[in-house]
Design a protein that fits this description.
496 residues; mainly beta
C-alpha cells in the first residue's frame, strides 16, 4: 500500500472558472498523482433572478451552458490525460440548497452529463459507476450546506472536509469559513454527522476556480492504494482508505486491529496503531474516540536530534510585488544524498467570479511548476509566484527535500543567483533568508532542518471499553505551520 495525493474537486474555464483545461491538467500533473476536473453543471433549486441575484444567476447560467456545449471534448481531453504517471477521473458538479453541493466523479470515460434534482438521481442515472462527494458541507442548512437527514453513504462514501472554503470538522476547528456564502454552521459539521451515526471517510480538495488543481494550502485528498491506477485509487476511495490534508503531504497510517482507516469491524478489544510522518515541526497528534480526545501526542515532547539518518529541509519562495515572478532553484548535497522531495506550488487564488475582479480567461495559471531529481545529489525546480495578497493570505510556494546524511552533510541552495551553503548541524539551529532586491522585493526562506526524530511518530495502545453500539476512532495531525491532516474514522461495533 502506498499514499497517493490528488484533487477531486477544482474548476477552470470549462464552466464559470478561469484558465484552460489543458493548463489545469499540466498544473495537476506537475505535483499530483490523480485529479478530477469538475466543471459546474447544474443548480436545480437556484435562486430566482432579481436585481440582487442577477450577477450570480447569470454567471451560473453561462457556465452551465458552456459545459453542456463542450462536454464531449472535455471528456475526451480528460480521458487522454490519463496515464501510468497521472490518473484522471471524469466529473462535474451539482449545486443544491436542499441536499448541499456535490461533485460527481467516475473512473469511466463514458460518464454522461445529465440533469437531475438530487445527487442520488445523478449517481443512479448517469450511465456508469459513480459517486457523489458532498463539499463545503458546513454552510447553513438550505444554503448549500449538507443535509445529514438526506445524506446517503451508499452514493457518498467520502465527504470533503477541507478546501479553500475552510475546514468542516467541527465548530472549533482551525480555518473557519469566510467566503461570501457565509459562516459555518454547527448543525452541518463532520462531528454532527458522525454523532448521528453516519459512516463516511474524509477527503480534501482545493475547490480552486482558476485552473490550478492541487494549489498549495487549499486541500488535497490522500488515498492509500496498492498502485497508481484508476481502478486501485477508485477502490480505495469507495473503501474510505482516505484522509484529507490542508496542503503538506503528511503521511498517515492508521488502523484498529489491523483494519485500515474507513473500515467497519466488530470487536470489544481494540488495538490501535498509527504511524505519522510530518513535513514540518509537529504541534500535536490527537486520537479521537466518539468525537472526544482519547490520546494526545505533543510535539514539544520530541526534542532529541538524530546525529545521522534523514532530515527535511523546506525552502519557501515568494513575497514582493503582485506581478508574476520566476524562480530557478538548485539544491545540491555533499556527504549525503537526497532521498525524496515534495513540491508545494500555488496558483493565483480564485474561489469564484467577482464583479470587482477580472482575470485572463485562458492563461491565468499558465505558470511554471517544474521539478526534477537529477541524481541523488542534485535537485532542481522552477516556479512562478506572486506577492502575498495580505499578511494573512500567503501565495508563497515551497519545496521540502528529505536528505540522508549526518550533521556534517553540506547542503547548497541556489535561487536566481543567490547561494547559501551550510552543514545539516548548522541548519538544525538556524534558518536563512535573502531578498532579491533591496526594498519590498521577492525573497526566499530556508527553514531550520527537521530531524527524523521530530517528524516520525508512532502510536500504539489498546482500548477495551466499548461505549456505544458503534464506536468511531479518527486521527488528526497538526503541524506548527498550521498544516493539518484529518484521517478517516474506523467504525468498531460492540460484540454482545
Amino acid at each position: 500500500m502506498k499514499v497517493y495525493f490528488g484533487d477531486l474537486h477544482n474548476h477552470c474555464g470549462i464552466t464559470y472558472g478561469f484558465g484552460s483545461l489543458e493548463n489545469a491538467i499540466e498544473r495537476a500533473k506537475s505535483q499530483l498523482d490523480f485529479a478530477a476536473f469538475t466543471g459546474h453543471a447544474m443548480w436545480p433549486d437556484m435562486y430566482e433572478k432579481t436585481p440582487e441575484t442577477e450577477f450570480v444567476v447569470n454567471f451560473h447560467e453561462v457556465g452551465f451552458a458552456k459545459i453542456k456545449e463542450h462536454w464531449e471534448e472535455i471528456r475526451k481531453t480528460v480521458a487522454e490525460a490519463n496515464s501510468d504517471d497521472f490518473v484522471t477521473f471524469q466529473g462535474y458538479e451539482m449545486h443544491s440548497r436542499e441536499y448541499g453541493d456535490h461533485h460527481l466523479i467516475s473512473m469511466d470515460d463514458n460518464l454522461e452529463l445529465i440533469y437531475r434534482r438530487s445527487p442520488e438521481e445523478l449517481v443512479k442515472d448517469c450511465g456508469v459507476e459513480a459517486i457523489a462527494i458532498p463539499h463545503h458541507i458546513g454552510y447553513t442548512p438550505d444554503y448549500r450546506g449538507i443535509s445529514w437527514d438526506k445524506y446517503n453513504s451508499q452514493i457518498s462514501p467520502v465527504v470533503e472536509v477541507f478546501s479553500k472554503h475552510g475546514c468542516s470538522m467541527n465548530e472549533d476547528a482551525d480555518y473557519p469559513y469566510y467566503h461570501n456564502m457565509g459562516p459555518r454552521d454547527t448543525r452541518n459539521m463532520v462531528d454532527e454527522g458522525l454523532r448521528r451515526g453516519r459512516h463516511f471517510g474524509f477527503v480534501g480538495s482545493t475547490d480552486h476556480h482558476a485552473g490550478f488543481p492541487g494549489s498549495y494550502g487549499d486541500g488535497l485528498a490522500a488515498v492509500i492504494a496498492e498502485e497508481r491506477t484508476r481502478e486501485s485509487i477508485w477502490d480505495a476511495i469507495k473503501a474510505r482508505r482516505t484522509y484529507a490534508v490542508t496542503g503538506d503531504k503528511i503521511l498517515c497510517d492508521f488502523k484498529v486491529n489491523g483494519a485500515w482507516m474507513g473500515s467497519e469491524i466488530k470487536s470489544n478489544e481494540r488495538k490501535i496503531t498509527a504511524h505519522v510522518e510530518t513535513e514540518g515541526t509537529l504541534d500535536k497528534i490527537v486520537l479521537y474516540k466518539n468525537g472526544k480526545p482519547h490520546h494526545v501526542i505533543n510535539g514539544e515532547s520530541y526534542q532529541k536530534t538524530n546525529f545521522q539518518g534523514c532530515y527535511k529541509l523546506r525552502v519557501e519562495m515568494g513575497w514582493g510585488k503582485q506581478k508574476l515572478y520566476h524562480w530557478d532553484g538548485v539544491m545540491s548535497v555533499e556527504g549525503g544524498q537526497i532521498e525524496d522531495y515534495n513540491t508545494y506550488f500555488r496558483g493565483r487564488s480564485v474561489l469564484a467570479p467577482s464583479k470587482d475582479e477580472a482575470y485572463d480567461e485562458n492563461n491565468i495559471n499558465d505558470i511554471c511548476t517544474q521539478s526534477c531529481l537529477e541524481n541523488p545529489n542534485r535537485f532542481t525546480w522552477s516556479c512562478d509566484t506572486t506577492g502575498n495578497k495580505s499578511t494573512l493570505h500567503p501565495t508563497v510556494s515551497a519545496v521540502v527535500v528529505k536528505i540522508r546524511g549526518d550533521l556534517s552533510t553540506k547542503v547548497m541552495v541556489a535561487l536566481n543567483g543567490k547561494t547559501y551553503t551550510a552543514a545539516i548541524g548548522d541548519l538544525l539551529e538556524y534558518g536563512y533568508t535573502n531578498h532579491m532586491e533591496y526594498y519590498h522585493s521577492q525573497a526566499f526562506k530556508i527553514y531550520k532542518a527537521v530531524p527524523e526524530s521530530r517528524y516520525q511518530f508512532d502510536l500504539e495502545l489498546e482500548d477495551n471499553s466499548p461505549e456505544n453500539e458503534w464506536d468511531y476512532y479518527h486521527l488528526e495531525v497538526a503541524q506548527k505551520n498550521r498544516q493539518m491532516a484529518y484521517v478517516s474514522p474506523i467504525f468498531v461495533r460492540k460484540e454482545e
